[in-house]
Amino acid sequence: MNSGPESCGMKAGRNMPAGPERTILGVRFFAGSSEAAVERGLAGGLVVVPSAPMLVELAHDLEYRAAATEADLVITDSGFMVLLWWLLRREWLPRTSGLKYLQIMLGPERRRSLGRCVWIMPSLAAARRLVAWLSSQRVVASLDDCYIAPHYSAGPVVDQELLVFVRSRSPSQVVVALGGGTQEKLGLHLKQRLGFPVGIHCIGAAIGFLTGDQVRIPTWADRMFLGWLARCLSAPSRFIPRYWKSLSLGILLWRYQESTPSPHP
Prior knowledge:
By secondary structure, the chain is an alpha/beta fold. It has one domain. The chain is built from 14 helices and 8 strands. The strands form 2 sheets. It has a 6-stranded parallel beta sheet with strand order 4-3-8-7-5-6, sandwiched between helices. It has a two-stranded antiparallel ribbon with strand order 1-2. The protein is globular.
């Protein structure tokens, strides 16, 4: 169930977007239901889930911008962006968090349609927790389906070993569970070079919320746009500076709205 204007004291109806997409900061966001977003994502293509801190990066990280603008599906994970957009335009966008997207994608109704999956993980320990959690959810997976990503340097992300790994398995879906800013560039790299249709889901920390790698976020907190608060409380030194930086998203949206931000260092 998506959060809507009613949960924030706002009225729905005439301010809903007319079409299934809305362009914000030059990026085409999907403005349909969470279930429809998952259906589109599973059909193939690059799926990205920009957080508020990463939306700020659109102004100066050209590789990240390319990944966001060339993605086939961009979902409205950032509750902060949704609220700011309503304040600026009086237009409420249905929100689909990365956590909600993943819960639907791995839910009982869609397990049979997943096909074979490849999981790109930040560490072997994270991969083991993932496999154990997937087994508890009756999703077939093993460590052989997991690729442990190296540390990628800044700038364009290229990984020839990963291309070989994915091609050797011919999956229907690739799930990238790395940090924001890196995973989208890696997803674009895969999209441009794999040479066969596949869903590439850059869902970052969302899988960690389920496996225990990240602090667990209650469903009510995700619906109330409070996932950021749970993360800040769990690791203040790591997440408070990150989310503090995202406050500049308000200035960026006020200045550019639908337009692509001018690059600056």
